[in-house]
Amino acid sequence: YAYNTVDYWADTAELLAKRGDCEDFALSKYYTLRRLGFTPEELKITVVYDNEKYANHAVLMVYTGGTRYMLDSNSDD
User: Fold this and answer.
1) How far, in Å, CA of 52 to CA of 28, rounded?
2) Nearest to residue 20, comparing CAs of 1, 39, 6?
3) 20 near 10, Cβ under 8 Å?
């Protein structure tokens, strides 16, 4: 656990200073892209199931230019 608790949600400053979980990364990306001009309709925090780790996982989905992208803190793909 990132902060010695099961479900602590770190803000962006805490995430950058210390560490965070997948939902912390997804929220940080969401707010960063909002500040850069993306609309709420283009950004969706989504919970997916990770078949390799057998666990739920939060990602940020970005819809732009007719294409959907998944921004995943566990992958560079």
Assistant:
1) 24
2) 1
3) yes
